[in-house]
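Minutes, project check-in

Agenda point 3 was the complex the collaborators sent over. CS summarized: two entities, 224 residues total, and the question is how they sit relative to each other. Sequences were read into the notes so everyone works from the same version.
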Amino acid sequence: GQNIDQPTEMTATEGAIVQINCTYQTSGFNGLFWYQQHAGEAPTFLSYNVLDGLEEKGRFSSFLSRSKGYSYLLLKELQMKDSASYLCAVTVGGYIPTFGRGTSLIVHP
Amino acid sequence: GAVVSQHPSWVICKSGTSVKIECRSLDFQATTMFWYRQFPKQSLMLMATSNEGSKATYEQGVEKDKFLINHASLTLSTLTVTSAHPEDSSFYICSAGPGIHYEQYFGPGTRLTVT
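CS then shared the predicted structure for the full assembly.
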């Protein structure tokens, strides 16, 4: 089976940097997704990592270490609108992601 | 990016009735669509994989006779919650991708409340 672990909640200040970690223990591994989900809305795609290393996309970056079963999502220059749930999801042998419970990020002024 | 729509966005129904939720891919064809359920402050749980022209594949613990899935065309999948009960109240989300593609696009979700 798959076990995906991420912190339940984090808080940060507007303009700051925050790192959301995700660890996984899976039988096999294809790739790792990060999604953003605002309350009452569907998730929106942020990133997909297959290879080790850091991928940067504007204010958001995602890192993957396959050997350590570890990923993080880095958010820079935080804005109030970044307050949302961030979902880590892993695909194993296919393209259907298995989701972690999500990290609720609260950005305050 | 690709667009996936859902209808209705929210629905309230009485216990014992059935509710149909539609998932459409608007600008691409999807041979496979996925249905998820999400309870408050919980993760997305995959319910079933909807396959165009064939039977859906249900995840363990999901009753196929209660959650009827029909994928009659390459752009439409429907989920019917039969004999709904209050515990079926949840946020139902579908996703689809253009072919066997790593990125799945989510619909906006349907909030179901059973009274």
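Noted in discussion: Chain A is about 0% helix and 60% strand.
Follow-up: revisit at the next meeting once the mutant set is ready.
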